[in-house]
Input
Amino acid sequence: MQRGISCRTDHEACMKTFYVTTPIYYANSLPHLGHLYTMIVADTIARHKRQQGIETFFLTGTDEHGINIERAAQRNGRTPKEQADYVVSYFKKMTAEFRLDTEHGGYDVFMRTSEPFHYQGVSELWRHLAKAKTPKGNDAIYKGHYEGWFCAACAEYKTEDEYAKPATAGDPPTCLIHETLLDRVSEDSYFFRLADYGDALLELYKSRPEFVQPESRRNEVMSFVAGGLQDLSVSRLRTSVSWGVPVPDDPEHTMYVWFEALTNYITAIGFGNEERERAVGFEKFWPALHLVGKDILRFHAVYWPAFLLAARVEQPRAIIAHGMWLDPVGKKMSKTLGNTVELDVLNRHFPIDAIRYFCLREMVFGQDGRFGYEALIDRTNSDLASGLGNLSSRTLTMIARYCDGRVPSGFIAEDKLLLAKRAGLDTEETAISGFLEHARDQFLQHLEVFAFSKALETAWSVVARIDKMISDAKPWDLAKDENQKQTLNAVLYRSAETLRWLCVLLFPVMPNATTEIWNQMGLGSSADARTPAGVNPAKLTWGELGEGTTIAEVKPLFPRIDKAKTMKEINDQGQEAGAGGRNDQASSTDVAQSPPASGGGAVSAPAIIEQSASGGSGQHATEADAGAVGVTSFIDITDFTKVDLRVGEVLTAERIPKADKLLLLTVDIGEEKPRQILAGIAQFYSPEQLLGRKIAVVSNLKPRKLRGYESQGMLLAASVGEEGKPVIATFTEDVPNGARLK
Ligand code: MSP
Output
């Protein structure tokens, strides 16, 4: 069953199949955004691989043994198994609601470490280790005595630099991560001779640079190992921790929960159990790509490979560590700290795909990010409602209106080319198809290295380009001119075909919305691919959207979210929950430790976190810049975010009779109707100079009337020189209308 220890990612299993895992989550408390995040990332990767025709196995699940689960069970008046069943039922409900379960094309197995086949497989691995010799010729496992401090929440022994000393002598120290008291452990224990594996591990990291990613984390792991490893206690006395897998041939000991939990990745697919091997296939799917939060990287990148080295089992394909979602003050979101974003709040207020998009777009993969409801609303409104959603509905609505609901031909005859050019269309179709192919390749390259944020940025540059093509060509005007029928058709064909490409590319990130667009485009019954899941993005070919395809009913995809209303609802619910008024099935005792001292309840729904993942340094830059021009009174970031600044495109501009300073503009800021804005710049800009310009607009300024015209916003301009000459703020790169400035 085992292969040699050197992993080559070009062997048969690696080429034809793919295995991706999330951590298995502790069954002591209910899941929150952090858990959801890793599942979303794994789900996206799995869907992307399946789209490429690779047989993929996606594992998630629960880690059900250990002292922390025993204690949670006790607090809730349950047995440990009942506690685990309770949390698992919630996890399963959650994964179904977020469409991450098997039924919705998500995970293939929800692994539970309380399963009998896991007991069998993990005992098999232990037996391998019990017989193994280390590279230095010692027994890999030996019996000894452990004396030290243990954090139940981390399930980890702590060294002196990993805990805070107590204020009063004699009290236990405190875990630096969970801020909870440590347990004193002094008992006989089995040890794994980790200290003998340092060189072999370093060799592994060196020979396979992709083994731990991103590189910054790899460096951390390497210097940890290079600093010298200590042997690891891998069992507890049954009298201290009874809820665990018994050590083979010595049932007075239970296995250390991390040893046993890590092994789930191979027992789930058949290691040590023939029935399971037949049902899934260790031979078929191993090695796995392990996705983990950076909080548990050491277990995955040091202990796990060392166990596998000792057992002579092939190493994982890679271990990819992502950053953490943080709370407003920059602390890791966790139940123990009581600062989590709850899934039922997210589910109630936001479309699933908006949450998926936000998580992947906002968190630069590998780095930490701060979660904010406001940022989530803004992204949903700008990138999804005004961006992709608007592109889809305007394209399909125009096809319905101008082409009898059938995708037109994109062909422009020789004698109409000049007319098309005059209408602002690039008549070389290869310009758009070439652009798309390039964007597609970039998108796929980013995905390959888990740079989700960059991949999505690339996809949105496509949205912007097509939006611009439509705004430049103005199909609504073309439709009035029979001579321009072919130009109109070409514009609509190009946007519809681009939409098809976007559906395929974005399917792994937004499976629901892209399938909905696919259906609205009339592709749901197509023989080749009834959903975008069935098209390999690498093989997308321009022009495969069939002329004459009949589109279906056009429905809005991402309705705009009313920010003030939604924030109020979230805050009100948070206060209710904080006051003990939480009415879902999660009892407040289902947290790892007692509720936090202040700041409201384990359900921190009201956490209004203004900064985005990239916002942390932004605030400093603002302060520094302000200082440079002598500002003495600073505003808070929340003051700044009261101003809603948007990218707008000037659609029309004209002078106003008898008002020589004013220009009357209509500006598209990504809303259904363009805004009418009056600007006092007529002495410095002609209307022609402004047409098509991308500008910055204050969109939430109270409307006011000037010379009988209502102005629904304000554009930003620098005031230069003594006469205060306005110089309009503009963008040198392509940005979509409605994008928020922050
Ligand atoms: N049971 C162990 C894992 C064993 S795997 C063999 C465990 N469980 S956990 O419930 O604490 O889950 C930790 C994981 O949940 C993180 O590594 C990460 O994947 C996810 N997250 C939990 N909180 C998170 C954030 N605040 N932000 C991002 N991900 C987070 O450790």
DSSP finds 25 helices and 27 strands in the chain. The radius of gyration is 29 Å. Residues 1-8, 578-633 have pLDDT under 50 and may be disordered.
